[in-house]
Amino acid sequence: xxxxxxxxxxxxxxxxxxxxxxxxxxxxxxxxxxxxxxxxxxxxxxxxxxxxxxxxxxxxxxxxxxxxxxxxxxxxxxxxxxxxxxxxxxxxxxxxxxxxxxxxxxxxxxxxxxxxxxxxxxxxxxxxxxxxxxxxxxxxxxxxxxxxxxxxxxxxxxxxxxxxxxxxxxxxxxxxxxxxxxxxxxxxxxxxxxxxxxxxxxxxxxxxxxxxxxxxxxxxxxxxxxxxxxxxxxxxxxxxxxxxxxxxxxxxxxxxxxxxxxxxxxxxxxxxxxxxxxxxxxxxxxxxxxxxxxxxxxxxxxxxxxxxxxxxxxxxxxxxxxxxxxxxxxxxxxxxxxxxxxxxxxxxxxxxxxxxxxxxxxxxxxxxxxxxxxxxxxxxxxxxxxxxxxxxxxxxxxxxxxxxxxxxxxxxxxxxxxxxxxxxxxxxxxxxxxxxxxxxxxxxxxxxxxxxx
Length: 453
Fold this sequence. Notes:
Blueprint: H1 31-49, E1 55-57, H2 64-68, H3 99-109, E2 116-118, H4 123-137, E3 153-158, H5 162-171, E4 174-181, E5 184-185, H6 187-196, E6 200-205, H7 219-226, E7 237-241, H8 259-266, E8 272-277, E9 289-292, H9 295-308, H10 314-323, H11 327-356, E10 362-364, E11 373-377, H12 382-391, E12 394-396, E13 413-416, H13 423-448
Parallel strand pairs: 1-12, 3-4, 3-6, 6-7, 7-8
Antiparallel strand pairs: 2-9, 4-5, 8-9, 10-11, 11-13
Helix pairs in contact: 1-13, 4-5, 7-8, 11-13, 12-13
């Protein structure tokens, strides 16, 4: 993964001392130089520990100030609970959600409203239900349940989203790693796996600002994904988790190709399930989630969903319809989120640039949106970086969390999530992170030379 160094506007920074003397490739340093670096970095680390920090960069949650942007949801209905088609949203029913929100979900995902189901607050919940229903009952009418087909498998681009992997692990679905490239998953490898293994039933993807790398899938990758339905089992489903569809940090963001346009061309609409939500747009715990799918997929899903629930929270859906009457209003709202997030992401990137450019201590990509920065340390170092940071009062996402079963084969990927803390805390956290990466890397290299730090 290459370091893509770009500047970011409108940011405030703590300027960090450039590289602390580690400005050459660590592989080229001799034992004496490494020992000098280790002594200096260890002393700095002990000074950090004495500060009794309590900082957290573990999960991609919106900050309280971001949540405040949607406080207008409270009281917005002013006692009027009737939706546009005359439905009293306080009552039971309406399994597909109210029409206004189905339209909003359609605009977010680039499909027709008839393809959209608007649900509760969690797109993860909808994904969980889709996997479980397919496992227990099959993906469509007449299909065998996955649980009766043998040891079914999912392809998991890595690094990826830990909660996707947890769904598979809970059901005993085997996960197959496929590497991420700069334009999306390695599609050559994906296609090879699907052609040779008839028990592959799913593929997880986050196509825009992928969690955690921030990659936006290229048109070519989207087209090849839409074509997978031609070579996969008819029980195969692509789980298209477009969580960050409108979570851009800058104007003129990269555009994600519409996968359903390609599916219509290839006749593969049944092979794709699309998801998104307002959970990082309005209230994270009280948003609205969307599933977009073909008529056949929706009919099968509704059949089982109707046994689990009498309908979603339509009052909350109507609140969102009032706050976001169209996609333009929603995108204007997201610009306010971007203004709050840009300085935090800029601080992270600036820190990485100042300390790791022109070294072999780490690689990263500069995301144009989403909620994460993915950092690849030297192989065999990530777990120690996370351990050192925790001992110094900084919580990071566990090493390995971005891989199935929590196992990063190279122990190098670390996911940074700067959205929740205030800017000052992000900057303080990055000072600790940099020290821990350098210290762990130097000690690892000393061990490889047979020299203790």
